[in-house]
Amino acid sequence: MVKVSATKLRNNLFEYLDKAAAGEIIVIQRNNQEVARLIPTKQTNWRDKMHITPELLVPPDEFIKPIEDIWENYV
5 pairs with which residues across the strands? Predict the structure, then answer.
């Protein structure tokens, strides 16, 4: 999120439009108070940007186990 004054936005409009097109949210301020937001028209899916896929270290059956089974040895 980028905060910018209305005057600076007016002077560099196409620069901020490019940032919004790239997915950035632009907060427009007048007298240091937020008056508007410039947001991209299409929200990108954050899952598509993930490069690392989590890997389970245990089988799924063990991972999702009822709690009663876990505590049987301690009771």
Answer: 29
Q: Which CATH code fits 1-40?
A: 3.40.1620.10
Sheet with 2-5, side-by-side order of all strands = 2-5, 26-30, 33-38
Q: pLDDT tens digit string along 64-75?
A: 766 666 667 776
Contact 66, 45 (CB under 8 A): no
How many angstroms separate the CA atoms of 5 and 58, rounded? 52
* Cβ 8 vs Cβ 28: under 8 Å: no
State pTM to two decimals. Answer: 0.54
Q: Is 23 left (phi over 0), alpha (psi -120 to 50) or beta?
A: left
